[in-house]
Amino acid sequence: MCMPLWYGGDYNPEQWPEEVWAEDVALMRRAGVNLVTVGVFSWSRLEPSEGRYTFGWLDRVLGLLADGGIRVGLAVPTASPPPWFSLAHPDALTVTRDGVRLTHGSRDTYCVSAPAYREASLRITRALGERYRDHPALAMWHVHNEYGTPCHCDHAAAAFRAWLRERYGGLDALNDAWTTAFWSQHYSDWAQITPPRATQYLPNPAQALDFRRFVSDEMLAHFREQRDLLRELTPEVPVTTNYVLAGWASVDHWKWSTEVDLVAIDDYPSGPGMAAAEQTAFAADLARSWAGGRPWLLMEQATGYVLGPRKGPKEPGEIARHSMQHVARGSTGVMFFQWRASRGGAEQWHPGMVPHTGPDSRVFREVSALGEALERIPAPYDGPLVEAEAAILWDEEAWWAAQGPGLPSSEIDYLAAVQQAHRVLWRQGVPTCFAHPSHDLPAYRAVLVPSLYLISDEAARNLAAYVEGGGTLVVSFFSGITDEHTRIRLGGYPGALREILGITVEEFRPLGEPVELPEFGRATLWSEVVHLDGAEAVARYPGGGPAVTCHRLGDGTAWYVSTRLDDPGYAQVLTRAGLAGSGVPGVEVVRRRDLVFAVNHTEDERPVPVQGTDLITGKPVGGRLGPGGYVVVRP
């Protein structure tokens, strides 16, 4: 018998009177919910004073859920310490890079390096683990929430120095890596080193990058401590945490994904309509890639859009379409934040599965219909799920380095470059995954390298071997520029990739106004003075210099795009490189093992290359898909 998909969301019963809890369970059953996350921000209710636990309310909640056949992802609530902790341990409060010590009153106000915080985290973890280790509702452990909070206090400074000692061994190696001869920054004692706090002008980019690496490792150590304790108490229960993809979150997800039992992500598209569909596919492909192609979990999404200061509902059908995009790419469930929209608090306008209007609402009817549909789809089983034809290189360290100080243009945006590469492939219907630059690159039709500013020698050799072995590489501007310490590779850009690409870039010339390239259209933001060293010019700037180049190396081909093209121009480069797709505009088709998912994101009926019986409706699919429709077919 196939395992069902998980379905549900964050449940915060402590926000509601106890008489609402039975109604919640009844509504969950009506909506097809079978998993809820409980207790993510409940530390102050579970431990109202140090060492005094009040688990009675949680006992009753878990009992009601178990009786209703609903399993629980029980959270360890360390993302939000209670007020008593902050008063007792003010040194464990977050200090910003400007030296401001934050006060309690929001979430994530802690220093992950503070001994008192680490000890308190383990205490509440042990208390929860020992009490609920045999509870019938327990399905998984959810540690913390959206790791990403940095701190610049003295605790963090001491831990940073210890991390640097282990990384470099001695000060000579650190001084060399950080180029401390510049601006009289040479360190003669470890005590002189601090986190990159606010300073008069630009901070040292190598120091800033190493601090972000440290923050990722320090948070991972905090996760491991709780994970190991939970594994000791409940060895058969998986332990996870929810990833957030954000520029402020210093988390190396490739490294973290080897430590969690189940990769889990939060996904909140930053634009509505087709942009949301594109971003949803992007997040889901990243998650599947971090999980090594195995099943993962959509831990959070919203029934509406949360677009900074503007919040509103998703259009009819979008909740289901976005959910199916995730399931198609290997999510073992569909979860939301949150079950019931809050009456008060900082996120009272965050949408819920049960909106403020209540269950007699379009949103809840759509949520219930989605639950019914998901019951008909088997959960993905272990092993490679989606066969990708192309890979995009993704490296958080390169992203962090590209956010560093003093770059030749403040408009360079690594995430936007990666998203464009994925968006163009998505529109062309090319199945895509992500890979780390040093990962093994099997026989992909192409590997795309969008603005990979930082690259190691190992990664450069890996890309050369891929091309020489017959691969097609497409490299975008501002790639291969520095080594892993953000030191510029001398002798001409793009540094580590010059020989692969058969070019030397002499100068960068950021663009103020767009220029037109024959065949590839509008070029913006950036241009370069490119010299050919074996490559041929496929397109030239109006002044005659090479703009797009192609180089044969071994049995493969390496393309270089020295400017930012609009999507149609970038798509044309990929077509010339042999990566043309056959997608239907606005329709995505994903093959997950023996199932085919087709989703129509348009308001028109569209053709789909799918034949078979729809698992959702039981009706045959005749090669057409109605406006906003989706089907799941076993051919």
Automatic annotation (TrEMBL):
SUPFAM superfamilies: (Trans)glycosidases (SSF51445), Class I glutamine amidotransferase-like (SSF52317). Gene3D superfamilies: 3.40.50.880, Glycosidases (3.20.20.80), Golgi alpha-mannosidase II (2.60.40.1180). Residues 10-376 form the Glycoside hydrolase family 42 N-terminal domain. Residues 388-577 form the Beta-galactosidase trimerisation domain. Residues 586-634 form the Beta-galactosidase C-terminal domain. Pfam families: Glyco_hydro_42, Glyco_hydro_42C, Glyco_hydro_42M. This is Beta-galactosidase.
